[in-house]
Amino acid sequence: MPDPLWDNALARMQQRVTDTAEKELDGFPQVSDPETGEWATVANGDWTGGFWVGLLWLAHYRSREDRLRLRAEHWAERLRVRAHSQTVFRGFLFYYGAAIAAILFDNPIGHELGLLGAQELATLYNPRARLIPIGTQAARAQEAHLRETNIDCLALTALLDWAAERLGSEELRQIGRAHAARHVELCIRADGSVHQSARFDPSTGSLIARFTHKGYTDESTWARAQAWAMLGNVLAAKLSPSEPIFLEVAKRVCDWWINHLPSDGIAYWDFSDPRIPNVPRDTSATAIALASLLKLSALTTAEDKVRYRTAAERTAKILVANFLTPVSERDKRAPGILTDGCFNGRTGQATKHELIWGDYFLFEALLVLTGELDPLAI
User: Which residues does 135 contact at the CB level (< 8 Å), separation at least 6?
Assistant: First the structure.
């Protein structure tokens, strides 16, 4: 029997998406203050714009309201100019902002933009390094654009694999596989924890250094890096069932997450911060991990299936009960806001805020928990 907790949470989040869609925003919503609900926006989508469009696609998937489809198509079209931006983050922008619409609805705009984004993304591939580097539109771009990579965009494998299937392109598929496999080599530690980033020689592909540029230190385990590794390797395992390395690594990074969470189930911004517990949480990293655990549960069998699903359901209950704003006369905040996301704990930027990617992954996970969405559909 469906749990009314999930339905209630989805209804709150659906209202938050609908209310945001009706605002005349000048850019893509990215961060909001939970007390006011007002969004700070980014004009070109930055690396996060696809998650806003993805939220609209999922809200339309749940309600089938034409107004949400039209808003999703409008915002997806605003991503078109980013297809040619030389950044690895096109993986996020065009998978969640476009390709999932083709997957869920065979939407022609999603189909066109998803293929465009995938084909342009693949042009950045460095065959000597066997990966797609960060690119010129990332932070610290002039220093890093051709010789650094990070775990954040491991999930681009999903965009390339989807496009490869649509186009019959073995080249796109192999680029995605190589990118995923190289990040196992570069970023995953033996114990299953994660270095966020790596620097390499672009002419030979040889490793120069590993580090964690958004974490507490270069050697720390930044919560969102761990969560991105969970998502990326689970997607690679789904897309490459004949290559057991990805499922093995997916289990390893997910087990590390489960075994290192604090007792209350919500990650601190960096697992290695010595000031814990007096540091920010990161519900956005926790939401990414939640969605990843649900996918992993669907890929495994018997005992593992139950274990990962149980961990996911516990995480979802904690997020919904303690961090998703309610419908309440006493609580004047808008309902459906996921609070306590940490954008950047190193710089102190937006450390207790609503973050658009946290919203996306919690919404996706709730659709899975209600049975409305196959966890392996997207």
Answer: 85, 86, 87, 88, 89, 124, 141, 145
Q: What does residue 201 show for φ and ψ, rounded to 5 degrees?
A: -85, 115
Q: What's the maximum distance between 2 C-alpha atoms anywhere in the chain?
A: 62
For 4-369, CATH number? 1.50.10.10
Residues in the chain: 378
If the chain, 378 residues long, is cut into consecutive pieces of 10 residues, what is the mean pLDDT of each piece?
A: 88 98 96 96 97 98 98 98 95 98 98 98 97 73 74 95 98 98 98 97 96 96 98 97 96 98 97 98 98 98 94 98 92 94 97 98 98 98
The pLDDT of residue 144 is 56
- Give the global pTM: 0.97
Give residue 138's pLDDT.
44
Rounded-to-integer distance, Cα 20 and Cα 1, Å? 31
Name which of 375, 363, 350, 302 is nearest 39 in CA terms: 350
Identify the pLDDT of residue 302: 84
Tokens of 288: 């990414």
For the chain, which residues make up each domain, given as ranges? 4-369
Residue with tokens 């601190």: 268
- Check residue 48 and report its DSSP letter: T
| 323 closest CA partner among 294, 280, 291 | 280
Contacts 24+ apart (CB under 8 A), 247-251: 247/299, 247/300, 249/184, 249/188, 250/292, 250/296, 250/299, 251/296, 251/300, 251/304
Query: What is the distance between the alpha carbons of residues 98 and 50, in angstroms, rounded to a whole number?
Result: 8
